[in-house]
Write a structure and sequence with these properties.
136 residues; mainly alpha; 5 helices
């Protein structure tokens, strides 16, 4: 018997906001906090959408037109092309920020970018929750 655990990915978005608002008590540099906030804000909404698609057997493309394998992030982006364009735009912004925060050591990731990530993730979550039943 397989035991499943269903983590609530929306908590990542809430955690990002709480982490950012309490950043002075954490003991890390402000930039470290901002990078984590940006990263978790994207991951929260991405995983909400990915899990919803899996749980509802929503078919996502496995390969692009050239036959190349698509990773999970690209699959979700392509699927969102058929859905809410505002949600797609928010996810794209969050993904761009994730790449900057997680992989670009020369990028300056500061309060403004962290706040934008939190706001974009919250707005994306609201749009997703409003529209997700129409996806099935």
């Amino acid at each position: 018997m397989r035991i499943t655990h269903n983590f609530n990915w929306a908590e990542y978005i809430d955690f990002s906001e709480k982490l950012f608002s309490n950043s002075t008590s954490i003991g890390c540099s402000n930039e470290t906090i901002c990078r984590v906030v940006c990263s978790r804000a994207y991951c929260g909404i991405f995983k909400l959408i990915e899990d919803f698609c899996e749980e509802n057997a929503i078919s996502l493309l496995d390969r692009d037109r050239a036959g190349n394998y698509l990773g999970s992030h690209k699959k979700i982006k392509i699927y969102l092309n058929t859905q809410n364009t505002t949600l797609k735009r928010l996810i794209s912004r969050l993904y761009t920020t994730l790449i900057k925060a997680d992989y670009n050591k020369n990028a300056r990731v500061a309060d403004r970018l962290a706040e934008q990530s939190i706001n974009n993730a919250k707005q994306a979550k609201d749009l997703f929750n409003r529209d997700k039943e129409n996806w099935i």
